[in-house]
Amino acid sequence: MKRKVFAYLCMAMMAVSLVGCGSKSVSSDTKKESTAAGDETTTDKKSSDEDETTTDKKSSDEDETTTDKKSSDEDETTTDKKSSDVDTTDWTEYKGTGYSISAPSVWLKHEYEASDLTLANSVTSADSFAENISVVLQDISAYDMDLEGYKELSLNQYEYLNYTVISTDKMTVNDVDGYYLVCTTETDGMLCYCSQYFTLIDDTAYIFTFAADTKGYQELSEEVKDIFSTIKFD
Fold it and tell me: What pTM, to 2 d.p., does this model score?
C-alpha cells in the first residue's frame, strides 16, 4: 500500500559581482609610425570599448526594466473574489479562529495540530497524495509590518527554502486585500504545488494554503479559488 503524502506548506516568519599589450619599435621612424598606429589603435579600441560598454549598459538597462516591469505587472494584477459569485449550495461552512470558510462536501475536516483548520479532499486522496487546504494564523504583533512587508518577507523565506515561486498577485476576498501566491517544491520525491491566499488583519497573519501534486493541482486549483472566495473574517 502506498503511503499517503499529506503535505503541510505554510509561510514562516524569519528575521531572516582587459589586459592591453604593445610591441617595441626598431627605429625612430618606425617608432613614430608605431606610436601613431598605437594611438590610432588605442583610440579605435577605446571607441569600440565605449560602444560595447554603452550597448551592454543599454541591454542591461532594458533587461532590468523588463524584469522590473514583469514584477510590477505581477503585483498590479488584482483579482476580486466574492462568495456571491459562487454557487455554494450544499457546501459546508467551517468556523475558525476569527474567520470562516466554506467547501464542497468532498472536503472533509481533519485534525492537524500545526494548523488552525485542515480540509482534505476525499476523492483525490485515493492516490498517494492527499490534496488539502490548511489554515495557519501567525501573531505578528512583535513586528512593525504591513501587508507589503509581509509579502516580501514571505518571498525571501520561500527563496531560502528553495521553493520556486510562479506568481504573486494581489487578490481581494470579500473586500479584504491580500495576495495570491503559487509556488512549487519537492516533497518526498514528487513535485508539489502550493497556492495561497494570505492577508493581515490587526496583528494576525492569515494564511490559507492549498497543497497538491501536479495532477491534483490541475484538477482542483479553480475549485480551490472558489473555496477561497468564501473566506470571511469576524
Answer: 0.69
